[in-house]
Amino acid sequence: MDRAAFLAWAERQEENHEFVHGNVVRLAPRTRGHALIAFDLFRALDGRVDHDIWTVLPKFGIDVGPSTIRFPDIVVDPADGPTTDRTATAPVFLAEVMSPSSERIDLGDKAAEDLTLPSLGTYLVVAHDEVKVWV
Question: For the whole model, what pTM was predicted?
Answer without folding.
Answer: 0.91
